[in-house]
């Protein structure tokens, strides 16, 4: 029973590689998460436990894959940016995409209990992933801006939508809420939230409005000396999580290490 | 904060599709499973719990994705065959590959306890996946034969290897075992197993020697009538698991529905 | 001035290959041939010289590339079919496509004079090309049928269109001809040709209505013996040109060698 | 005879596109030019007529395709650089590659007589082509440097090789010449040329040593006024040909328009 006779079938593999010297972005997306969030009674419009679990899983992925320099998450999606020069798996698309997608899925489930202590997973959730190359820093920043703008737009809409639906004195059906919000612009949604529900949208937690940005930063950490007798400061390249604006220049100017790697 | 300004970045996506009217095979592989099996004290050369978990996870994937007509697993890998005519996700490679890889990972972890009752997962395992197209039935069968021949060759080697290492009266180091087996053919390994360890290789469980084949078969199942008063037979298209030979013609002749779909 | 420092740029090449064991079809198409035919006063609706030149160029390509088993031409396009098992240029798409496109272009110009004796080429024409894989014989035949049905539909339309425009007693503008033919079916066009212009469409030359099919056939050729004293018959695998139907089964049954290679 | 039944075959086309916002380089290469140059008695090591024909054909391609900003030719190859932002044929790889390859071939043959007045083409030459994307200016410049360094290395070797073979007083066979040059470095080849043949390599024509660079430059051209009475200067964006160094910074600093487009 020799293998050799059948090995020709390996030649049918394509092995698409991602163009060298470009930023690689892999976006992981929740698969059928509408059903998943509803069966697990996620808080609406945002479930903080879920966002924190997403962030935690993403952080673990970054610890595992040192070539990820930046990650951005919102809702049920997470984008991971590999440094331009990465040669991970020889830049084979299927290998990078599937491994990261699996690792994220795996961490999401493994650490579920840490964030949903009282809630059992009812069935195994899954994600999909895709890889895209961006040739310039500007293209990459525009990609990040695209995701953060998307976060803002969806969150403003969802906040207004669920305020109407969850309005205890005058609850609307989902269809009614949809009709009310149809064709309203941002200002109108802000206004509705403020006048009807006393919600100042801009005061809502940044994690909801801006999403989560993970990146590496040299940070001082407390450490014990070897003999354990005293404490010292050590410098480590830690993955940190922030929720600020990444569309403007400020974030990038304050963290020049991200794009310079 | 409009999205439109940034949406051009979507144009950088490639959306590779898999050639229509070909068998799609997605092979999911354990990622760094050498470390994973060792940290979780898997039995050597085969851990039946792990194989059963793999099979169970694969079965769940087949229940979720109706276009999978066949799956074959051995060791830490599983190959899934989608029917030629599938239009799942418009045959987009990244979407099919990442979704199935994630779903398999997810089920592997979710159902871990069912097979490893007493053993906690120490860290989240991950898998990678790749897709390949096969134009003809013969190419597909040769692919399946390749994996089953690979299973046989590795299992015979591993059985001999671990017999030498786990030999209580004369234990060998892994390096010694390797040296002993170097350049031996199948007959020699069979002979060594039989004369030194009383093992008739061909009597070992088929699941170890042949792997596991999952496919759909119309099966009679017992069901209650609606009023619950009596029991009836119903015909269902169930996913069944077998461990026989799939290299010869017999399996395919007995299950013509697999390739005819 | 060493090359080695710069050679890394070779890694940016993608080298897409065409799936093994599939029929490869490369279709070569005239580029801006509307202008080309008008500047060279091609007869309308068909210029027999041009069709013969196309056929001649295609024949030369088949003589150069032995793995082409079949070719079909109509108007300013030619489709070439490589046998499933071809390993030409390791099935690299860009290499196959560009080489054949260039070879066809080259022969078209080189042999121009043979068919347009009295007419000088005014400027160099060009073609583009694309490759497609077809997994089954049926897919390939459907591709061929698609091109021949396209030939028929266009030729019937063009014959009616140019009859109206070139009508000496009642010439129409191109816009008027278009308006008259808009929304007419085949029967109406046949009727118009017959009643107004006495043209029995089905009696028009097959090369116009059915295009040209080139394939290899074992043929007896007359040859001289080595000493030149007498003539003998030899069997050669010649490229022949036919203009019959290739949509029905007859052509394929009479020429089983084409698909069996 | 409807087309619609067969049109599904169009879905088998892949339509690979080239990553946006990258420099596109298409390199056209002579196909079997060893035979072609020998059957047409090209001068060795360089045939100036052929180089001028190549340049002329390239120039015509640049006039036809305005998005080509730069081209570099040497021996039987020509590289064409499209501006990063080009959207020619929606950046479809096969379309760009095959069209340019065909256009170059076509011009090469069409203008043959202009440079080989007394020599008839014996058979139609052909070329192949491939496309590569380069994300940064530096990658593009390294590509150009790679080709020019290659030109230098080959030309120095060929000059020495043909000097030995064409040496009237002591002609060597090609095999002997090869053996003499094996493992010699640049200095040794320069030395051999100078001491044995009185050739100062660095004084040889730049077109041989450096190849040909074509690019667009705003140039003053003499033109007549409309009434034809007087002559005026007009500014036009002409394709110019140079043979200087493009590895160093000077060329790029003097022609900043090339990369800034």
TrEMBL record, chains A, B, C, D:
Binding site for GTP: 29-34, 75-76
Annotated signal peptide: none
Ranges for domain tRNAHis guanylyltransferase catalytic: 6-135
Catalytic reactions on record: a 5'-end ribonucleotide-tRNA(His) + GTP + ATP + H2O = a 5'-end phospho-guanosine-ribonucleotide-tRNA(His) + AMP + 2 diphosphate + H(+)
Keyword Translocase: no
Cofactor(s) required for function per UniProt: Mg(2+)
EC numbers for this chain: 2.7.7.79
GO biological process, one term: tRNA modification
Thg1 C-terminal domain boundaries: 138-247
InterPro entries listed in its UniProt record: Thg1_C_dom, tRNAHis_GuaTrfase_cat, tRNAHis_GuaTrfase_Thg1, tRNAHis_GuaTrfase_Thg1_sf
Binding site for Mg(2+) 2: 29, 76
Family: Belongs to the tRNA(His) guanylyltransferase family.
Described function: Adds a GMP to the 5'-end of tRNA(His) after transcription and RNase P cleavage.
Protein name per its UniProtKB record: tRNA(His) guanylyltransferase
């Amino acid at each position: 029973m020799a293998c050799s006779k059948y090995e020709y079938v390996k030649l049918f593999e394509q092995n698409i590689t991602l163009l060298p010297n470009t930023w690689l972005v892999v976006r992981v997306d929740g698969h059928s998460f509408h059903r998943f969030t509803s069966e697990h009674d996620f808080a609406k419009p945002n479930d903080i436990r879920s966002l924190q679990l997403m962030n935690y899983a993403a952080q673990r992925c970054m610890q595992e894959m040192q070539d990820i320099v930046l990650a951005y998450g919102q809702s049920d999606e997470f984008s991971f940016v590999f440094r331009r020069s990465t040669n991970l798996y020889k830049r084979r698309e299927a290998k990078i995409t599937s491994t990261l997608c699996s690792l994220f899925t795996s961490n999401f489930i493994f650490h579920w209990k840490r964030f949903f202590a009282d809630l059992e997973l009812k069935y195994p959730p899954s994600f999909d992933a895709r890889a895209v190359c961006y040739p310039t820093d500007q293209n990459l920043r525009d990609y990040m801006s695209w995701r953060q703008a998307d976060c803002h737009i969806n969150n403003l809409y969802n906040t207004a939508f669920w305020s109407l639906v969850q309005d205890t004195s005058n609850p609307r059906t989902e269809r009614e809420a949809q009709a009310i919000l149809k064709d309203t612009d941002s200002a109108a949604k802000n206004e509705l939230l403020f006048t009807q529900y006393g919600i100042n949208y801009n005061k809502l937690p940044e994690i909801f409005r801006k999403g989560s940005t993970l990146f590496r930063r040299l940070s001082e950490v407390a450490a014990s000396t070897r003999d354990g007798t005293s404490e010292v400061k050590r410098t480590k390249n830690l993955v940190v999580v922030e929720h600020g604006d990444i569309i403007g220049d400020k974030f990038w100017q304050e963290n020049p290490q991200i794009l310079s790697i």
